[in-house]
Every structure is written in structure tokens, then in C-alpha cells.
Specification:
This protein is an alpha/beta fold. It is about 30% helix and about 25% strand. The strands form 2 sheets. Strands 6-7-8-3-9-10 form a 6-stranded mixed β-sheet, with helices on both faces. A 4-stranded antiparallel β-sheet has the order 2-1-4-5, with helices on one face. The longest helix is centred in the last third of the chain and has 16 residues.
Length: about 230
């Protein structure tokens, strides 16, 4: 499903190397944690995967598409198959929870007659049916992140990418967010979680790809976060 083949990424005319000779594959329905300290290269991998950046060398593939060489006009088609969740939620402040989730469908051109059922199903899955009419400032941090998750998954993407989704949350809300990610994975969606939260990774006991200084130093099928 996802392949990074001999991928390196440099900045500042080669003076800074964010990733060097990265190789891995992620199969459909996997749950993979990409871990490492800040600056290890986790977010660079995500930006390369969704086409926000291009590798200096190597190839990035999503299914049959080589994202690393795609024309910008073709990238939206690939991104519709990828739901993204970020640390800072990125909710629209003047829209309710319902409207934030519905907006993702409207942009994708989903017929209006289908939107209501899809939005309510998605909010129900993250346990926020009762918060549909609340605005972002009326939600706790954990609730806001779960609205962001509902928005990411409402279009039934093949892949969910969660980039440090628990970075601003307390342990209780962190547990809620990770539980929802596991539920999404159990429904058949591939999940990539980037995090530096050791406890989250250790409790998941799923596949772990560990980065340090732009290099993969561990890739284990069921692992824990070992400090480099």
C-alpha cells in the first residue's frame, strides 16, 4: 500500500539532511507507529507521503501512484484516500462540530443528500453525537481532537495519518484518542501514528518504526518505544 524506497530528504541546498536512505513498506490494514524524538524525521515522512514535499532522492508510492513525481493537479485525488489528523486540530472556529465534519464532504463533492448520514455516523463513532451543535471553543481539547478525527474519517479513506495527535492532551484524553484510532483500524482502515509518547506506543504493542537522526534504527512487528 505504502512504499518508501531509498528515500532521502535534504534542505538548505544539502546542508541539512532530514531523512537518509529510508526504506519501508506498510500493508493494508496495518497499524504502524512511527516514533522518535523531535527532529528525528517523523513529520517529514508524513509530508512526503501526502505530497507536501518531494524527496531529494528515492521514491514514495501510495498504492499504484508514485506520489514523489505526481503533478500537483493529481495530488488531490490521492489525498482523498488519506485522512489526516494533526496535533492542533485545525478545526474551523466559526463552524459547529457537525459543520466541520460536513465541510470535508462538501469540498470532496459528496451529494448533499448523503452528507447528513455520513456526518452523524462519523460523530457517533468518536462518541460525540451529543456535541454536534457545539463550536470548537465549547469543546475540551480531547473533544476537539475527536471532531478532527471524525472529519478525517468521514469520507472513508483507505489510510488515516495521525501526526502527533495526542501532543496537547492529558493522559485520559490521550487514551480516548488512541482507542478511537484502534477502532478505526479494526474497521479495516490503515493507520499511521507519529508520536514521541513512549507510553502510548508501549500500550499499543503494534508495529513500530523508530527514527533517529533521519535514519530508521528499528522496525519491529510488535514492539515498544526503545529510547535511542
Amino acid at each position: 500500500m505504502i512504499t518508501f524506497e531509498n528515500v532521502s530528504k535534504q534542505y538548505d541546498d544539502g546542508r541539512y539532511t532530514a531523512l537518509e536512505d529510508i526504506n519501508f513498506e506498510i500493508k493494508p490494514k496495518e497499524f504502524v507507529s512511527i516514533v522518535g524524538r523531535s527532529g528525528a524525521g517523523k513529520s517529514t515522512i508524513i509530508r512526503l507521503l501526502i505530497g507536501e514535499e518531494r524527496p531529494t532522492t528515492g521514491r514514495v508510492l501510495f498504492g499504484d501512484d508514485e506520489v514523489s513525481t505526481m503533478h500537483p493537479r493529481d495530488l488531490p485525488r490521492v489525498r482523498r484516500s488519506i485522512g489526516t489528523i494533526f496535533q492542533n486540530y485545525r478545526l474551523l472556529p466559526r463552524k459547529s462540530s457537525y459543520e466541520n465534519v460536513a465541510f470535508a464532504l462538501e469540498v470532496a463533492g459528496v451529494p448533499e443528500r448523503d452528507i447528513d448520514d455520513m456526518v452523524r455516523e462519523s460523530l457517533d463513532l468518536v462518541g460525540l453525537s451529543d456535541k454536534a451543535d457545539n463550536f470548537p471553543h465549547e469543546l475540551s481539547g480531547g473533544e476537539a481532537q475527536r471532531v478532527a478525527m471524525a472529519r478525517a474519517m468521514v469520507n472513508h479513506p483507505h489510510l488515516i495519518v495521525a501526526d502527533e495527535p495526542t501532543g496537547n492532551l492529558d493522559p485520559l484524553n490521550t487514551a480516548d484518542v488512541i482507542k478511537v484510532l484502534e477502532q478505526i483500524n479494526d474497521l479495516g482502515t490503515t493507520v499511521i501514528l507519529t508520536t514521541h509518547n513512549k507510553d502510548v506506543v508501549n500500550k499499543l504493542n503494534r508495529r513500530v518504526i523508530q527514527l533517529d537522526g533521519g535514519h530508521i534504527i528499528r522496525d519491529v512487528a510488535k514492539g515498544k518505544y526503545m529510547l535511542a
